[in-house]
TrEMBL record:
PANTHER family: HHE DOMAIN PROTEIN (AFU_ORTHOLOGUE AFUA_4G00730). The lineage of its organism: Bacteria, Bacillati, Actinomycetota, Actinomycetes, Micromonosporales. It holds the Pfam family Hemerythrin. Signal peptide: none annotated. This is Cation-binding protein.
């Protein structure tokens, strides 16, 4: 898959997780979905910031990417708030709804604005190679939200690997799902 196809696939996975949350029958099931959602969205956002948006900024070169990158901040803040909730926490449902809305806006902007422009201007081979990089990066991307970390290179290139190591250690200690 090329980068845009891979990211669109990730978007569909996240949309399914929101549906799974709504369909869950117990607090434990909902919390399990939350933990997977936090992991998948955190990895997705980090890989977009480290790989996809810098690539898009080089291809488009007119500042269009900054607005899309800014859309990550409220999502990361909501993810952090959600990650701090516990099973059965009353706030969890409300945070999930706010997160679903923020993610839907972000997905719509990326898929309807940024990705078509990028596909029209970028080399298909470069998009395929970027897709491979993103796919491989999933194994070492941060699994928790870091809203206060840098979101642009070069500082992001230093912060993301450290955050990923810390996150994966925390995931193991807390018995969270692995990737």
């Amino acid at each position: 898959m090329n980068a845009t196809e891979l990211l669109r696939h990730d978007h569909r996975v996240v949309e399914q997780l929101f549906r799974d949350y709504r369909a869950a029958e117990s607090n434990a099931q909902r919390r399990g979905v939350v933990e997977i959602l936090v992991r998948e969205l955190s990895k997705h956002a980090a890989l977009e910031e480290v790989l996809f948006y810098p690539f898009a900024a080089k291809v488009l070169a007119d500042g269009q990417v900054d607005r899309h990158l800014a859309g990550h901040q409220p999502v990361k803040e909501l993810l952090l708030e959600l990650d701090r909730c516990r099973a059965g926490d009353r706030a969890q449902d409300e945070v999930m709804e706010r997160l679903a809305s923020a993610v839907a806006r972000h997905v719509q902007e990326d898929e309807n604005e940024l990705m078509p422009l990028l596909c029209a201007r970028a080399d298909e081979q470069a998009l395929r190679e970027l897709g491979q990089e993103i796919d491989q990066g999933k194994q070492r991307a941060p699994t928790r939200p870091h809203p206060h970390a840098p979101d642009k290179p070069p500082a992001l290139a230093l912060a993301a690997p450290l955050a990923a190591i810390y996150d994966r250690l925390r995931d193991r200690l807390q018995g969270r799902p692995r990737t």
